Amino acid sequence: xxxxxxxxxxxxxxxxxxxxxxxxxxxxxxxxxxxxxxxxxxxxxxxxxxxxxxxxxxxxxxxxxxxxxxxx
Length: 72
Known about the structure:
The protein is built from three helices and no strands. The chain is mostly helical. The protein has one domain (about 5-70): Orthogonal Bundle (Helix Hairpins), CATH 1.10.287. Helix 2 runs antiparallel to helix 3 (about 40-70). The longest helix has about 30 residues, at about 40-70. The termini are far apart.
C-alpha cells in the first residue's frame, strides 16, 4: 500500500489496517517456521506497510499536539 493511500485514510481505518497486518505478520511467521511459506517477500512488504502506517499515525499525532499547543 502506498503512503498516498494511507494519508487519505482516517485514524480508525489506519488502526484497523495495522491490526489486520500485524495478524497477517504472525500468520506469515508461523508459516515460515513450519516451512509452508510460499512467498517470503510478503513478510518484507507487510513489515514495510506497518511501518508506513505507524509513520502516518505518528505524524498525525504530532500535528494534533502542535495544533493544541498553538491554540492554548
